[in-house]
Amino acid sequence: MAKGIEFAVESGAKVISISQNAVTPTPSLVAAVQGAENSDIVIVAAAGNRDEGALAVSVPARLPGVVAVASVDSNGNHYSGSTDGPQVLLSAPGVNIYQTGPGDGYSSGTGTSDATSITAGAVALVRAKYPNLSAAEVIHRLTATATDKGPPGRDNEYGYGVINIVAALTADVPPLSASPSTAPSATDQSPSRSSAVAQPAGPGTALLIVIPIVAVLCALIVMLIWWAVRHRTP
Predict the structure, then answer these.
(1) Residues whose CB is less than 8 angstroms from the CB of residue 146 and which lie 6 or more positions away in sequence, other chains included
(2) Quick one: pLDDT band at residue 144, thresholds 50, 70, 90?
(3) Which GO terms of type biological process are on file (predicted)?
């Protein structure tokens, strides 16, 4: 995972989407995440799924500076299988998400991995429209415009709320005064000191994906068209 992040940094990525977990934050992984943050890259990572044994926000989602994403259902309610915790920053749709699959086909997926991909796409859209914003300002724009759910303000299930892509792209957002990321240090939250072992954060094969902005824009356009056609009133 660390090498993948380092490759993304070297390749000039602006957003990195990670739907993969490690048991514990190794020094190389922590250094890679810090290197991405120092390079003004937004890292978006899946919080983890309870049905796959994640009882706390996973690594690297729990690391400082990483956008930890939980999932909600089609009604915008917290998905019961989504891990919650103090590191959750945002939520996004993650139940029965229509997506491409193996063999040039399509499938439906559920989990924080799906929510993470959508959030990474939102990051890419914001960075495309506001290219001069720093990574911290991009995250701030997403948290400031998110639809608040649950208790007022940030909470452990929804974070700052469910992403609102239209608002993130159009709202008048005050400048950032401090980074919204509240993730504590990795050592304080580490569940063990064993070496990192990759485990999927969502159903199917977990992937570390570096998302080019153009590809993400195309994927989101396809998703929006599909959604509009499916929910069109006869």
Answers:
(1) 90, 91, 159, 160, 161, 162, 163, 164
(2) very high
(3) proteolysis
Structure-block tokens of residue 43? 């890292």
| 227 pLDDT more than 80 | no
Mean pLDDT of the 10-19 span? 97
Judge if pTM exceeds 0.85: no
Distance CA 68, CA 77 (A): 17
Residues with Cβ within 8 Å of 128's Cβ and at least 6 positions away in sequence, in order, are 213, 217
Task: Return the amino acid letter for 210.
Answer: V
For residue 146, what pLDDT is reported? 98
DSSP code, position 147: B
| Rg for the chain, CA atoms, rounded | 16
**For tokens 């290197």, what's the residue?**
35
Question: Do β-strands 67-72 and 88-93 pair in parallel, antiparallel, or remain unpaired?
Answer: parallel
AA letter at 190: S
